[in-house]
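Whiteboard transcription, Tuesday session. T.W. wrote the structure tokens on the left side:
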């Protein structure tokens, strides 16, 4: 494992705004420390230069994570001799839960992260991972962009515990007309049916409808609990712990108009809601509905189509539809919008077997509860 060196690069080789620069794993790639006044601009410039950057790569997203008080910003900045720049949005868990050092990109239930920067290649990624692991934390967890799965697979080795995941992504190439043409014929039919049924769509970019959305979310939690044979109190506790309303409010506050909540109303009652994050790419991160109100209106199809149009208008290259797990119905719904399933891995570096122990405990708990993964 290559330790960070102490020698600083000559002042005339530093990127603008850098107050120090030290070698990482080679003479070419260096760890950068932008000055306090330049840090955010440096970070934003890297994100803006990468056409595949996720909304979760932005400094605003890390601000939202850290606003809870449970995490501290530990983001790392890099540059090489060719002028390429890279950022790893990274946070450190605080308090007792962060015992021994726990670095996350990002924390659980906060989307995807990993390295961002135009021109990232296998050698550079490997050097960055060597630096991160060399920090000495008990745990380093990284959940990267699924579309870069091949690069991450090539750059990692057996020192990483790969946690398999499955996500869906829509290619927005060609714009809104091309995306409409790639929708499944039945999906286009459902969109038209929702419009004829009088489903009303409201797009909220200020967080005004979050209370309404959260009521739908809790309704969905009750439905999921019944399907999974999970005690209702436990399901509600887990849901509020994972996604309290205050967390969504922080997301909206820090991302501003790039936090988009699209709501469908049936007979003027909230029926379906979905949250999308906008950046170089779009990421649909949460959805909830009232099954009884949605009925046969296909309101969910109209919500997804509305968000696809917004993503195209924003200039996004891809539209991430998030995790699908092993759910075949969920995968089919996403694929009806032209999404392609991608197998990828979250990479975890642990000095103690935290993940293995956690999975075993969860398996025992599920067996006791007769929990059904559906």
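and on the right, the sequence the group agreed on:
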């Amino acid at each position: 494992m290559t330790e960070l060196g102490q020698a600083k690069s000559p002042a005339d080789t530093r990127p603008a705004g850098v107050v120090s620069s030290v070698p990482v794993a080679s003479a070419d790639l260096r760890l950068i420390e932008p000055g306090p006044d330049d840090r955010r601009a440096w970070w934003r410039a890297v994100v803006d230069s990468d056409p595949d950057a996720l909304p979760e790569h932005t400094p605003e997203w890390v601000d939202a994570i850290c606003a809870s008080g449970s995490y501290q910003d530990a983001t790392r900045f890099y540059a090489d001799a060719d002028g390429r720049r890279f950022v790893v949005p990274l946070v450190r868990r605080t308090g007792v839960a962060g015992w021994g050092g726990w670095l996350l990109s990002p924390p659980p239930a906060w989307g995807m992260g990993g390295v961002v920067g135009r021109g990232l290649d296998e050698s550079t990624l490997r050097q960055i991972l060597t630096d991160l692991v060399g920090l000495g934390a008990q745990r380093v967890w990284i959940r990267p962009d699924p579309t870069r799965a091949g690069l991450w697979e090539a750059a990692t080795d057996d020192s990483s515990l790969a946690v398999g995941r499955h996500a869906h992504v829509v290619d927005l190439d060609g714009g809104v007309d091309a995306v409409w043409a790639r929708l499944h014929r039945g999906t286009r039919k459902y969109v038209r049916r929702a419009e004829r049924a009088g489903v009303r769509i409201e797009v909220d970019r200020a967080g005004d409808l979050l209370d309404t959305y959260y009521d739908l979310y809790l309704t969905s939690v009750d439905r999921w609990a019944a399907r999974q044979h999970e005690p209702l109190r436990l399901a509600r506790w887990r849901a509020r712990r994972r996604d309290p309303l205050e967390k969504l409010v922080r997301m909206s506050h820090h991302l501003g108009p790039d936090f988009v909540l699209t709501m469908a109303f049936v007979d003027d009652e909230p029926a379906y809601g979905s949250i999308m994050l906008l950046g170089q790419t779009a990421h649909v991160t949460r959805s909830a509905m009232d099954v009884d109100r949605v009925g046969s209106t296909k309101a969910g199809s109209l919500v997804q189509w509305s968000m696809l149009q917004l993503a195209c208008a924003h200039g996004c290259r891809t539209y991430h539809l998030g995790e699908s797990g092993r759910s075949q119905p969920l995968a089919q719904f996403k694929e009806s919008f032209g999404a392609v399933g991608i197998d990828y891995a979250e990479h975890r570096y642990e000095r103690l077997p935290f993940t293995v122990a956690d999975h075993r405990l969860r398996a025992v708990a599920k067996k006791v509860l007769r929990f059904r993964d559906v």
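Someone added at the bottom: The chain has 13 helices and 15 strands.
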